[in-house]
Amino acid sequence: MIAEGGLAALWFAAALAALQLAMAAIGIPKNRDDVMAAVRPIALVQGLLALVAMGCLIAVFLRSDTSVLLVAENSHSAKPWLYKFAGAWGNHEGSMLLWVTILGLAGAMVALLERRLPKATLTATLGAQASIALGFYAFLLFASNPFARLDPAPIDGNGLNPLLQDTGLAFHPPTLYIGYVGLSVAFSFAVGALVTRDVGPAFARAMRPWILGAWIFLTLGITAGSYWAYYELGWGGWWFWDPVENASLMPWLAATALLHSVTVLATRDGLRAWTVMLAVVAFSMSMIGTFLVRSGILTSVHAFAVDPTRGAFILVLLAIYIGGALALFGLRVGTVRAGNTFDPISREGALVANNLLLTVILALVLIGTLYPIVAAGFGVQLSVGPPFFDKTIGPIALILAAIMAAGPLLRWRRDDGKALIGRMFVPVAIAAVILLLFAVFGGGIGILPLAGLSLSAGLAAASVAPLWKRNLRRTPLFIYGMVVAHLGIAVSLAGMASDSAFTKEKLVAAKIGEPYKVGPYAVTLNGIAPRVGPNWSALEAQLSVRRGVGAAMILRPQSRFFSDPVTVTSESAIATRLDGQLYTVLGQPDEAGRWQLRLWWKPFVTFIWLGGALIALGGALSLLGRWSRERRPERALI
Length: 638
Prior knowledge:
The chain has 19 helices and 10 strands. By secondary structure, it is α+β, with helices and mostly antiparallel strands. A hairpin with a 5-residue loop joins β4 and β5 (553-555).
């Protein structure tokens, strides 16, 4: 009965979403306060019902109830409980239910917490959120029912994809989905403001926490997903420009541009039309990502292999939501005032330049991701991979980093170019020194890694420049957030450039007891032994790793065999030190009794993920600082 309870909760939630949309559509034109007042409690109950449905799905997975088709296809009684729990969303239907649950809870939180917007604008926002939820409820109920029964029930399930049997599954998808759904809330705010012709600073201040929260979770999700793929897939790379990786990157790029734009609107009453359009674009990117992952048109380790009918359903929703929003924008853009103006040499000007470059990068990623799909539709098979993205996006990203360094040092509205040059002297000098050192002693590294290393040093110095000559105890928390986030960009850029410039790779046919050199390490294969896990068996190598004259450490990479479903995976073993990682992967034996080993020495590669954590931390500090500042007037009235 748990599955039937979950399905009933979904139907009731869908009915309430339809009622919520109808009440908003009736109450706003007629200015009926009583009707608009009913929208809030409906949104709250709808969110709770979605949460009940998700709880029921998790329950049937934990119970290994194979009479539920989704459990039979994606779980097994021998799985550890964590993989049963997280496996509830490690599939198409479950992931969509998680999406809808977060969507419903987000609408409930807007209804519960938002008190700054006029009633009509808030009602229109909740109506827009209900329309999004209604489409996805329909998708679940009519095309992707997560509670479908199987009769007769099999004795046991098929098991979860072994690549997903990792703690990353419990963290990576939920954080990404919270980010995606946060962008849906920003979209709903933009639609609500257009409906009521209320695009202004108050609307931006109400929307900004949701954008910032979405951006934080997207950053965490992408960072965690990058590291998960890095150690789990055993190919030694942190980003492969996989189409589904791009599907998560595109909303982040749009959200970053939107975050800058909404800050200008909230604090300086500028970029009104920019903010509304970017809110539509950001949610469009999350919808396109959803379509790519679930349409069946991509072949990727990340993608859900489903029939094209479901992809067509999502494509229709994409056309309705985004097409409708763009039509509304076209009809109402004439009512959106331009806002305050500013000079090109100003902080607003730097943010606009930032947004333009982010938009160009977004367009390149979108084209590179979709072009092979479109070409395949015309019978032409081609691939767009790292060389295209690196050569086109790399230089633009470096220009973006340079503007990012200058932006926080500019004044609002208007500034003097000569004064900016004086403020930039120290960061530019540091970048020049690093450039010279690596050009002379770097061993002939490429132009892009060289530029990345020097720019990262200059950006790091410029990031902390806003704290110069300040009383640090009285500096607002959101200023610290900006500093930490920009510093995180510099740290990640340094890690990416170091990985590209200095990584050493060696593929060896290893004999027992013979040392092999990679970077500063000597790696010796001591032996191979069988191992048995909770639902797998493995051949495990014991590697003795020595650096210089220091003590040896032991690494144990594995080649694992899973029986449900039948899969062989490579489990890497990684030694992490302050200056980088030694990454080892065990391959197959040859006829001479040697074992294939892949060895990488990756200097400072951990800076990539450390930088991602700093970026998210900076966002969290900014969110906390803004929340604290906005609550001060409320405290003063108590």
